[in-house]
Amino acid sequence: MKFIIADDHPLFRGALRQALTQKSRKADIVEAGDFDTVKKLILEAGDIDLLLLDLTMPGVSGLSGLVTLKAIQPALPIMIVSATDDPATIRRALELGASGFISKSASMETINKAVSAVLAGDIWAPQEIDLGSEPDPEISDLISRIRTLTPQQTRVLSMLAEGLLNKQIAYELSVSEATIKAHVSAVLQKLGVDSRTQAVIRLSKIGSDSFQALS
């Protein structure tokens, strides 16, 4: 099986590597310490069985990273592994397409059980935490709107957030600039905003720091 461990702390990557190889599970494990490396790996590494993703690392903070990676590889199972493990963050991660959520304080046994469950096609969340329902109507509306975007539209939105121009996005995605303009228009309409800047601001609201403030 092929796994990517994405975390900027080498010691924790080692702990996850140990968990993944328990129970004689044969694993090809690739590690990444920053978000740009993660994006490169999922584009180039071929079939990946599971990505274990920290919410905060160089190049990204919060659930916007999850949104970006799901747009690049919609079928890729992604399990969030984070110290930010409040009910709101867990619930929102699952709503945005994560296949599971593990707290960094979880035991090796729990991590291994979670990985096995996700590999079997299940969704994993800490059983002892009541996830409740979304209390903030703005965030609820935002998540619903993001989920209406196609993978390509979501990639365009993520690239807008990186400050890329239409011409640069067109080059990266190997399409025409006119196609990108159409995608941008669709993104603005679906997010209910009038400008690229407003779209980026809306996307930034799914950062973990913003979630903490809104919760």
UniProtKB/TrEMBL annotation:
Cited SMART domains: HTH_LUXR (SM00421), REC (SM00448)
4-aspartylphosphate: modified positions: 54
Residue intervals of the HTH luxR-type domain: 142-207
SUPFAM superfamilies: C-terminal effector domain of the bipartite response regulators, CheY-like
Gene3D superfamilies given in the database record: 3.40.50.2300
Keywords of this entry: DNA-binding, Phosphoprotein
Claim: Phosphoprotein is one of the keywords in the record: yes
Domain Response regulatory: 2-119
Any GO MF annotation of the entry: DNA binding
InterPro entries found in the cross-reference section: CheY-like_superfamily, EvgA-like, NreC/VraR/RcsB-like_REC, Sig_transdc_resp-reg_C-effctor, Sig_transdc_resp-reg_receiver, Tscrpt_reg_LuxR_C
GO BP, one annotated term: regulation of DNA-templated transcription
Protein name stated in the entry: LuxR family transcriptional regulator
Protein source organism: Paramesorhizobium deserti
Upper classification of the organism: Bacteria, Pseudomonadati, Pseudomonadota, Alphaproteobacteria, Hyphomicrobiales
